[in-house]
Specification:
heterodimer, A: mainly alpha, Recoverin, domain 1, two-stranded antiparallel sheet, 12 helices, 4 strands, B: mainly alpha, Potassium Channel Kv1.1, Chain A, Four Helix Bundle (Hemerythrin (Met), subunit A), Helix Hairpins, four-stranded mixed β-sheet, 24 helices
C-alpha cells in the first residue's frame, strides 16, 4: 500500500466543465467539493509510528474506511459515529472533546494516522502515556492545566451521555459535586487548577484508577 | 448500534479513558475474548458462486443465520467452505447488509422470493433501508392484496356446511352465480327494472288523438295498463327489498348503504302516490315525485360491474372533481362579471344581470355555444373569446386524473378476474399432480405385491415393464405404507378420470371381456366367502349393480359417499375375487400372500402385467366409508383395467 501522502486530491467540477449554471443549484457543487480523498501512509511507516502489529492495523483501517470512505473524519461525522454507541444520551459534547484530542494538528479533521496514533497511546501505551493522554483530553484549551470550568464541561458531557432516564434521576448539582471531589483528590496545592504532574501523581496513588487503566490492554 | 460501526467499537472503548480518572469507584471487568482468533476469511459458496468475507463481518449480527453458530450446519468438510443451496442474487444483498449495515431491496426481485430468502437467513425485513423501503412496502402490499383476493375467492368456493337459510339467501343475493335460483332472481329483477324504466319513458310519448280532445301522451290514454305495469314492478321491487333486508347480516348497515337508499327512493313515489291520490292540492307535488322513478335505473348498478366501478371512481376522485368545480365556479363568476359590464353599454343586451351572464359564461366555457346570448360590443367579443379559450383549459386539467383513476380501478378488477381464472387452472393442475402421486404410490404397492405373488406362482416375468421409481419415490411410498399399516387404513384415489384410464402398463390379458361379464353375472349369484369384511356383503346394492359396468349409472352405496366410478372399479375388483375362486391353488397361498405382504412391500419396479391384487383389512366394519374388499388370491385371472384403489393390509 504505497500511496503518496496526499492530503487532498480535489476534483473541482466547477473548473472542469466550465459551465457553471447558477440556476441548477449550488447543492450539487457542495457535494463535488467535499469528495476529497485521503490516503494514509504506508503500513510500514505506521507500524513504526505506532505499537500495533500489521494485522491490527489492517483491521483498524478496514473499520475506519468502512465508516469514512473518504479517508478522513470531520467533526460531524465523528460525533455521528460516536453517538451510535450511546443511543440514549447525548454524546455530542464528549465526542467533540474526543475529536479535539485526536486531532493533534488541529486542522479540523482526523485522518487515519491521527486515529491510529491516538489509539496506539491508549491501547498500547504505558500507564503514564495513558494518563498523559487523558490529561490532554481534559485540558480543553491545551494550556497545560485543568481548571474547574474545563472539568465541569467534561463532567457535564459525561453525564449527558447517560441521558434523561437514569436511576437515580440526574440531579442538577451532581456534575458540580463530582468536579469538587475530583479537585479535592487531584489538586495538591489547592490552587484551583490541576497540572499534569499533580494529575499523574494523584492518579498513581489511586488504586481504582490504576486498575481501570489495565482495562485497555485487551481492547484489541 | 449499527453494525457498520461495529468496527469502531475498539475506538469507543478506548475513548472511555476519559472516564477513568474521574470515576470514584472501580470499573467492572472487561469481557475476555476467549478464543482470540485472528480474523479469518470465510468462504460462502452459494449455489456455486463463492463469496468471501471476514468472519467478524458476519459476526456483527449474531442473531442471524450467518452470524450465529447456525451456519456450522452448512459447513462442508471436504471443501472447507459453507455451502448454501440458495439464490446467489439475493445473497448478494444479504451479504451487503452485513458489510454496510444497510439492507437493500432490488427492484427486479420477486417480493415473495425475497421474503423467503430473508426468512431463511434470519433477517427481519423491517430493517430495509429508507432508500428501498417504500418500494418494498408497495410490492408487499400488492402481494398481500393478491393473497387476500385468492383467499376470498377460495372461501367463496368452499361449501360451508352449516349456512343458515338467511346466510344462503344473502349469498344468493350478492353473488348470483352461487345457485340457479339466485341466477333466476337476478335476471328477473333485471328484467323488471328494464320494464319499469321503459314504461316511464313510453308513458310520456304522445300516442295519437282521441277524437274530441287534444293529443294525449300514452300514459294518460292507457292509464290503467300503465298503472298495472307500475304496480307489478313496484311489487317486485318491494319484495326484493324486503328479502334483502331480511337476509342482510347487518340490517342497520344495509339500510344505510347506497343501494338500499336507491331502492327505497325508487319505490317510495308509488306508495306516496297511493296514499295521496285523494288530495287534489298536493297532486301537483305528487307529479314531481314521479321524477324519482327514474332512480330505478340506478338499480342496474347491482347488475353491472362497470357502473359500480364508475361510481367508485367518482367517489375516489372526489377531490379532483371538487377542484374542477371550484375552479370553474371562480372562472364563471369572473367572466360573467366582466361580460356584464362590457355589454352594459349596448342596447337591448341580453346580459341583464350578472346571474343572467352566468348562463352565457357556462355555455361558452364548455364550448357549447347555443347562441341565445351573444355579445355585441367589441369589448364583449374580446372577453367572450378569452372566456371560451380559458374554458377549454380549465376543464381539461382535472379530467386526465379522473380518467387514470378509473382506468387503474378497472384494470385492477380485470386482473382480479384473470387471477381467479388462472387459479382454477392452477388448482386443477395441483389436483392432477396429487392424484398422480397417490396413483404412483398405489401402483408401486400393487407392483410390489404382485411381484411377491408372481414369485410364488413362478410365472416368468417380463423385464422392463412399467415405470421405474426413483429412490426418493420409493422411500416416500414406504413411508405412506408405514402410515397405512399404523392406522389400519388405506389410501383411496379420488379421481373419476382414473377409472376409465386404460393403463399405460401393458397387461397380459388373462381374461377377455366376455368372460369378464360372465363372471360378473356369476358373481351376483354367489356368496362371498370369508367375509372378513362384512361391510361389503352387507351392501346389497353392490351385487345388483355389479353388472352395470357398461352403463355408467350413478349409483350409490348406502353407507358411502363415493361416486359411481369408484363403484365400478369396486365391481371389477369384486368380480376378480369371484374369478379367483376358480383357482384353488391360489387360495392356499392366500395366507402366505398375507404373510408376505405383511412383511412390508418392496416397491419394486418390476411389474405389471398383473394389475390387480386385492387384499382386505381385517378391520371392523365400523371403519366405513373405506371400502373393504374381500381378500383374494386371485392372481391368475385378472382384470384388464387397473383398479383404482385397493385396500391396504
Amino acid at each position: 500500500m504505497r500511496g503518496q501522502s496526499r492530503k487532498e486530491s480535489l476534483s473541482d467540477s466547477r473548473d472542469l466543465d466550465g459551465s457553471y449554471d447558477q440556476l441548477t443549484d449550488s447543492v450539487e457543487d457542495e457535494f463535488e467539493l467535499s469528495t476529497v480523498c485521503h490516503r494514509p501512509e504506508g503500513l510500514e511507516q505506521l507500524q513504526e509510528q505506532t505499537k500495533f502489529t500489521r494485522k491490527e492495523l489492517q483491521v483498524l483501517y478496514r473499520g475506519f474506511k468502512n465508516e469514512c470512505p473518504s479517508g478522513i473524519v470531520n467533526e460531524e461525522n465523528f460525533k455521528q459515529i460516536y453517538s451510535q454507541f450511546f443511543p440514549q444520551g447525548d454524546s455530542s459534547t464528549y465526542a467533540t472533546f474526543l475529536f479535539n484530542a485526536f486531532d493533534t494538528n488541529h486542522d479540523g479533521s482526523v485522518s487515519f494516522e491521527d486515529f491510529v496514533a491516538g489509539l496506539s497511546v491508549i491501547l498500547r501505551g504505558t500507564t503514564d502515556d495513558r494518563l498523559n493522554w487523558a490529561f490532554n483530553l481534559y485540558d480543553l484549551n491545551k494550556d497545560g492545566c485543568i481548571t474547574k470550568e474545563e472539568m465541569l464541561d467534561i463532567m457535564k458531557s459525561i453525564y449527558d451521555m447517560m441521558g434523561k432516564y437514569t436511576y437515580p434521576a440526574l440531579r442538577e448539582e451532581a456534575p458540580r459535586e463530582h468536579v469538587e471531589s475530583f479537585f479535592q483528590k487531584m489538586d495538591r496545592n489547592k490552587d484551583g487548577v490541576v497540572t499534569i504532574e499533580e494529575f499523574i501523581e494523584s492518579c498513581q496513588k489511586d488504586e481504582n484508577i490504576m486498575r481501570s487503566m489495565q482495562l485497555f490492554d485487551n481492547v484489541i | 448500534m449499527a453494525a457498520g460501526v461495529a468496527a469502531w467499537l475498539p475506538f469507543a472503548r478506548a475513548a472511555a479513558i476519559g472516564w477513568m480518572p474521574v470515576a470514584n469507584c472501580p470499573m467492572p471487568l472487561a469481557p475476555a475474548d476467549k478464543n482470540k482468533r485472528q480474523d479469518e476469511l470465510i468462504v460462502l459458496n452459494v449455489s456455486g458462486r463463492r463469496f468471501q468475507t471476514w468472519r467478524t463481518t458476519l459476526e456483527r449480527y449474531p442473531d442471524t443465520l450467518l452470524g450465529s453458530t447456525e451456519k456450522e450446519f452448512f459447513f462442508n468438510e471436504d471443501t472447507k467452505e459453507y455451502f448454501f443451496d440458495r439464490d446467489p442474487e439475493v445473497f448478494r444483498c444479504v451479504l451487503n447488509f452485513y458489510r454496510t449495515g444497510k439492507l437493500h431491496y432490488p427492484r427486479y426481485e420477486c417480493i415473495s422470493a425475497y421474503d423467503d430468502e430473508l426468512a431463511f437467513y434470519g433477517i427481519l425485513p423491517e430493517i430495509i433501508g429508507d432508500c428501498c423501503y417504500e418500494e418494498y412496502k408497495d410490492r408487499k402490499r400488492e402481494n398481500a392484496e393478491r393473497l387476500m383476493d385468492d383467499n376470498d375467492s377460495e372461501n367463496n368456493q368452499e361449501s360451508m356446511p352449516s349456512l343458515s337459510f338467511r346466510q344462503t339467501m344473502w349469498r344468493a343475493f350478492e353473488n348470483p352465480h352461487t345457485s340457479t335460483l339466485a341466477l333466476v332472481f337476478y335476471y328477473v329483477t333485471g328484467f323488471f327494472i328494464a320494464v319499469s324504466v321503459i314504461t316511464n319513458v313510453v308513458e310520456t310519448v304522445p300516442c295519437g288523438t282521441v277524437p274530441g280532445s287534444k293529443e294525449l301522451p300514452c300514459g294518460e290514454r292507457y292509464s290503467v295498463a300503465f298503472f298495472c305495469l307500475d304496480t307489478a314492478c313496484v311489487m317486485i321491487f318491494t319484495v326484493e327489498y324486503l328479502l334483502r333486508l331480511f337476509a342482510a347480516p347487518s340490517r342497520y348497515r344495509f339500510i344505510r348503504s347506497v343501494m338500499s337508499i336507491i331502492d327505497v327512493v325508487a319505490i317510495m313515489p308509488y306508495y306516496i302516490g297511493l296514499v295521496m291520490t285523494n288530495n287534489e292540492d298536493v297532486s301537483g307535488a305528487f307529479v314531481t315525485l314521479r321524477v324519482f322513478r327514474v332512480f330505478r335505473i340506478f338499480k342496474f348498478s347491482r347488475h353491472s360491474q362497470g357502473l359500480r366501478i364508475l361510481g367508485y371512481t367518482l367517489k375516489s376522485c372526489a377531490s379532483e372533481l371538487g377542484f374542477l368545480l371550484f375552479s370553474l365556479t371562480m372562472a364563471i363568476i369572473i367572466f360573467a362579471t366582466v361580460m356584464f359590464y362590457a355589454e352594459k353599454g349596448s342596447s337591448a343586451s341580453k346580459f341583464t344581470s350578472i346571474p343572467a351572464s352566468f348562463w352565457y359564461t357556462i355555455v361558452t366555457m364548455t364550448t357549447l355555444g347555443y347562441g341565445d346570448m351573444v355579445p355585441k360590443t367589441i369589448a364583449g367579443k374580446i372577453f367572450g373569446s378569452i372566456c371560451s379559450l380559458s374554458g377549454v383549459l380549465v376543464i381539461a386539467l382535472p379530467v386526465p386524473v379522473i380518467v387514470s383513476n378509473f382506468s387503474r380501478i378497472y384494470h385492477q378488477n380485470q386482473r382480479a378476474d384473470k387471477r381467479r381464472a388462472q387459479k382454477k387452472a392452477r388448482l386443477a393442475r395441483i389436483r392432477v399432480a396429487k392424484t398422480g402421486s397417490s396413483n404412483a404410490y398405489l401402483h408401486s404397492k400393487r407392483n410390489g405385491l404382485l411381484n411377491e405373488a408372481l414369485e410364488l406362482l413362478g410365472t416368468p416375468e417380463e423385464e422392463n415393464m412399467g415405470k421405474t421409481t426413483s429412490l426418493i419415490e420409493s422411500q416416500h411410498h414406504h413411508l405412506l405404507h408405514c402410515l397405512e399399516k399404523t392406522t389400519g387404513l388405506s389410501y383411496l384415489v379420488d379421481d373419476p378420470l382414473l377409472s376409465v384410464r386404460t393403463s399405460t402398463i401393458k397387461n397380459h390379458e388373462f381374461i377377455d371381456e366376455q368372460m369378464f361379464e360372465q363372471n360378473c353375472m356369476e358373481s351376483s349369484m354367489q356368496n362371498y366367502p370369508s367375509t372378513r369384511s362384512p361391510s361389503l356383503s352387507s351392501h346389497p346394492g353392490l351385487t345388483t349393480t355389479c353388472c352395470s359396468r357398461r352403463s355408467k349409472k350413478t349409483t350409490h352405496l348406502p353407507n358411502s359417499n363415493l361416486p359411481a366410478t369408484r363403484l365400478r372399479s369396486m365391481q371389477e375388483l369384486s368380480t376378480i375375487h369371484i374369478q379367483g375362486s376358480e383357482q384353488p391353488s391360489l387360495t392356499t397361498s392366500r395366507s402366505s400372500l398375507n404373510l408376505k405382504a405383511d412383511d412390508g412391500l418392496r416397491p419394486n419396479c418390476k411389474t405389471s402385467q398383473i394389475t390387480t391384487a386385492i387384499i382386505s383389512i381385517p378391520t371392523p366394519p365400523a371403519l366405513t366409508p373405506e371400502e373393504r374388499l374381500i381378500e383374494n388370491g386371485t392372481l391368475g385371472p385378472l382384470a384388464l383395467h387397473p383398479p383404482n384403489f385397493l385396500s391396504g393390509i
